[in-house]
Amino acid sequence: ESTPPGTRFPLGSARDPDIGANSLQNYELTPNPLFSLLVRESPDGTKHPELVLEKILDREKQRNHHLILTAVDGGDPVRSGTAQIKINVTDANDNPPVFTKEIYKVRLMENLPEGSLAFQVKATDNDEGTNAEITYSFSDISSSARQLFTLDPRTGDVKVTGPLDYEENKYYEASVEGKDGGGLTAHAKVHIDIIDVNDNAPTLSLLPILNPIPEDSVPSTVVAVINVRDRDSGENGEVSCKMDGNLPFRLETSSENTYKLIIASALDRENCREFAVAVRAQDGGAPARSSTATVRVFVLDRNDNAP
């Protein structure tokens, strides 16, 4: 199909045993927009037909052409003979691969197991044979993404080969290349969004403010400050705290991620000289994750009892 217009193809000559005007006089070709007929005459008068390509061929539009060559003599009545010309257009690598999408947008849960099929890129090629065989590869990809994803050069399957972690990286971008057997290429973009999963429990850090505390400390005295944090996002990262047990303390919100442990009622060292205050932090995921930290509060004696 890459044959340039103007190329000539010699055809077999007809034979006519008659002589003079009754012998072979001319050749005719069935009308066709792609081919014409040129009759070349040698010095001895023999006529040689040649098929001439007039326009560029396109195998993808039409791979076979059927023509009829007619040889005509000059007798009366005129006699003729015909021959069929069958033309098979072979493939030239004149079509590059084409991806099914210019941009592949993918959303993956961060708990997708290693070895799972993440997505597939696909390109087509209108050529045939090896010219239509496409090999896939990453043409541009970060080192971190290369450790997490592999691309099958034959199928275009992209698989997860490492642990995805939304908290480490929530977005990846890469470019893929499809190359056919003739060396023509196509490119597409890949955008990968990692979706958060509630895979992190809240963490608590304790900062004692007053410990031990005098037993005559007034209510609302701050005993400790508790900071909470959750690495997840959205509801998975929204944390609430509560205190377990019926103790003379309560939690008070100080800021978005900070709580104060304060005295709620009078203390009496003679009744209890040490408290283990369990503070439980729970996120808003489904299912929720939680953590517990214990604040040990020691009560300092005051001379509040007469002999």
TrEMBL record:
GO biological process: homophilic cell adhesion via plasma membrane adhesion molecules
GO CC aspect terms: plasma membrane
Location of the Cadherin domain: 1-99, 100-204, 213-307
Gene3D superfamilies the record matches: Cadherins (2.60.40.60)
Cross-referenced InterPro entries: Cadherin-like_dom, Cadherin-like_sf, Cadherin_CS, Protocadherin/Cadherin-CA
GO molecular function terms listed in the Swiss-Prot or TrEMBL record: calcium ion binding
Keyword Aminoacyl-tRNA synthetase: no
Compartments in which it is found: Membrane
Alphabetical list of Pfam families matching this protein: Cadherin
SMART domains on file: CA
UniProt keyword terms in alphabetical order: Calcium, Cell adhesion, Glycoprotein, Membrane, Repeat, Transmembrane, Transmembrane helix
Entry keyword Nucleus: no
PANTHER family, sorted: CADHERIN-87A, PROTOCADHERIN GAMMA-B3-RELATED
UniProt name for this protein: PCDGD protein
Organism from which the protein derives: Cnemophilus loriae
Lineage: Eukaryota, Metazoa, Chordata, Craniata, Vertebrata
Gene that encodes the chain: Pcdhgb1
